[in-house]
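INFO batch 0412 | record 1 of 1 | parsing
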Amino acid sequence: MKNIGDYNYLIVGGTTKAATTSLFAYLSDHPAICAATYKETRFFLSSNYPLPSKYRYNGDLEEYASLFPNCSETLLRMESTPDYLYCEKARQRITEFLPYAKLVFSLREPISRLISWYRFAKQIGKLPQTLSFDAYVELLFAAEHKRQEEQHLQTLQQGCYTIYLKPYLSQLGPARVHILFYEELATQPAQIMASLCNFADIDADFYENYIFKVTNRTEKMRNSTLHQKYRDFRFRLRQWTHNKPIIHNPLRGIRQIIEPLYLRLNTQPEKTIQMSEETRHRLLNYYQPDIDALSELIRKPLPWKPLKKSD
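INFO prediction complete | emitting tokens
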């Protein structure tokens, strides 16, 4: 019988707000892949990382195996935890315990990602509805050099991808790390998925006639308190049923019917985010050095509109 580390794994490691939920759904449909029973296992995150999880590594890897209960030995095991990108403990544990794992990182232009995070934090009630984007950015810069527990207050530096990717590339090597871009996945998904399949050594033809649907889109909520309660309930229910397929699968089917109706009732048209020129220039100057470093690290230009420093 194989040990947990003897299997092949494909781990989608982030970044957050870069279509990792859609990517998980696309990969889950591939016949050569056996996905974890839910998307974000968060298993290898450090114990104090500010995200909840049913299982967190505490010396027992058997709990990780329980997340793949129906996987045959020949299938590629896949999970997606975007915040693995930012967690040093996660990198160390994956390196130590999963020697055949390959990591995929989906990256997004950092300012648009920050705007998406701002919308998402409002959606889940972490930020006041009256807080402007300029004020949010000011809050992030003020908090940059302080130890922050809240995830939505760590988002400024988390857009500087190079500092997080370098250790992964150093420890795992480029043959085990694949970088793709949110913008390209949105505009040319079949091509991006074919490249990912080649990296994972699975059949790329599966996606030739595949219908790519966007999931987990950030919406503006009419009632953010109700949505937070809905998210909490969904999270707890999924954690309880994930290894009970007789219950979990029918509930997932019901959710796919009910959730679009709920979102139709509790969402409203999203207004364009207003950003001052001062804030825009501040963010451009902040991110440009890392963008240059990232392009040099992966040895190719990035598919983002070139950012220019402001005087």
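INFO post-check: The two ends are 62 Å apart (CA to CA).
INFO record closed
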